[in-house]
Amino acid sequence: MTDIGLRSTVEQADLIQRGELSSRELTEHFIERIERLDGEINSVVTRDFETALAESDAADASQQKGQSLGVLHGVPITVKDALQTKNLKSTGGATELRDNVPSQDAAVVASIRRQGGIVMGKTNLPRWSGDIQAYNDIFGTTNNPWDISRGPGGSSGGAAAAVAMGFTSFEIGTDIGGSIRFPAAFNGVWGHKPSFGVIPTTGYLDHVDGGLNEADINVFGPITRSAQDLELLLTVMKRNSPPWVAELEAAPEDLKDLKIGAWLDDEFCPVDGEVREQLEKVVQALEKDGMSVDRSARPELDPDEAAMLGLWLVQRAISQSTDSNGPGHRIWLDSHVRREELRLKWAQFFDKYDAVIMPVCFVPPFEHQQQGDFGSRTLICNEEERAYIDVVKWTTMVGMAYLPSTVPPIGLGPSGLPIGCQVVGPYGGDRLTIALAGRIGDLMGGYQPPPRAL
Predict the structure, then answer these.
(1) Given the DSSP bridges, would you call strands 171-175 and 190-193 parallel, antiparallel or unpaired?
(2) Which part of the chain has CATH 3.90.1300.10?
């Protein structure tokens, strides 16, 4: 039992289904780890262990009768606090919802429960999921498990930290500007940002009256300790109810037949030497593995225009949480038309290439910054001061185009901090990006527990 909490969801579920591990044993193990190790991390901020233990006992009783509740039978998890969770405080990190206890689950939480998953707590985030860090006035600051002086990324920072520390089997993140991808990269775990629309996003608390609508660009997706878990959870979480039913192509049988691009750096957002070095190791590992990688592959678009258009569209999508009226709908429509033109450029690129490897963030995990805002903060990259807003340039130009992006752990940089990369594919190519990211993870060592988790 010493390392069971650090194993993959697939392994944990299999042990329960074979009767080698009970749901109660796994739940008690997670609870013990949270109570012993989460103090300096501060990731699991709302806890309902009593209910989780009762549900685990019920799952074990069903197991003894030969009744399976689903592929996640008896598996306990935590849920990002941006998602409505029935009978459990769900705040979105905002004081306005400090005492909010929903009467129903977000659609994706309900899908997890239908497959036998057990919710035992909620994880920390920034107010209204609006930062690349994870702190708020209700629950305070979540620290990076690899270095508590640094943030875990955001906005799903508490979620990814909990996965890295073995506090949960997996997590459900949200991503409108990189909120699954940054935390996955910063914590050394796996994350998948699905193609837009594949997973329902109702029940998202991004403003006081949130939950009913589905915001432009925003997606929900899994954060895990293995690529196999991403594939399983994509199947569990994807949209299956009319009028939208998600249909995704299968992953290719032989990854060595793929044509892969490598867009590792660019003058529109230069990458720190530590990040670039690790990304180069990924390409070298793929080439050594027999894959063809084209370092000159680029879509025929202006990346800075795409990134800034993406940021503008994200700002419009989150305008309800920022109390901003913003421009008229006609102006949004004109910007949307330009987005569609850029999406065609991406589609043309993916007629020639199957996937492209890109940075997530231009710097490694950075120290906490709670003064100022997106417009006033700065970061140091290659010994030069850069605008904080640059953190989202590599992610927004992918997200605004609705493309899938999988982040594998690719090892530690010279500073001892995790680095990640994006594996980006064509719209609907989610299983392809997960499969390729899985191979990259295998080649680069995969998930490594932070020393604090051992």
Answers:
(1) unpaired
(2) 4-237, 255-453
pTM of the model: 0.98
What single letter denotes the amino acid at residue 146?
A: W
* Catalytic sites, residue numbers: 80, 155, 179
Cα dihedral angle (32, 36, 39, 42), rounded to 10 degrees? -30
The count of other CB atoms within 10 Å of the CB of residue 101 is 13
Alpha carbon of 275 to those of 154, 221, 300, 363: distances in Å?
Answer: 18, 24, 24, 6
Pull the structure tokens for residue 4.
């069971």
Q: Is 77 helix (H, G, I), strand (E, B) or coil?
A: strand
CA–CA separation, 232 vs 208, rounded Å?
A: 32
> How far is 324 from 340, CA to CA, in rounded Å?
25
Torsion of CA 435, 438, 443, 445, to 10 degrees: 180
Domain at 255-453, CATH homologous superfamily: Amidase signature (AS) domain (3.90.1300.10)
Residue among 181, 190, 120, 136 nearest 156 (CA) = 181
CATH architecture assigned to 4-237: Alpha-Beta Complex (3.90)
Ranges assigned E (strand) in 210-364 = 219-224, 259-262, 292-294, 355-359
- Mean pLDDT by runs of 10 across the 454 residues of the chain is 90 97 98 98 98 98 95 98 98 98 98 98 98 98 98 98 98 98 98 97 95 95 98 96 85 95 98 98 98 97 98 93 83 97 98 98 98 95 97 98 98 96 98 98 98 96
**DSSP string for residues in 104-129:** S--HHHHHHHHTT-EEEEEE---GGG
Q: Decide if 167 contacts 140 (C-beta within 8 A).
A: no
pLDDT value of residue 326: 79
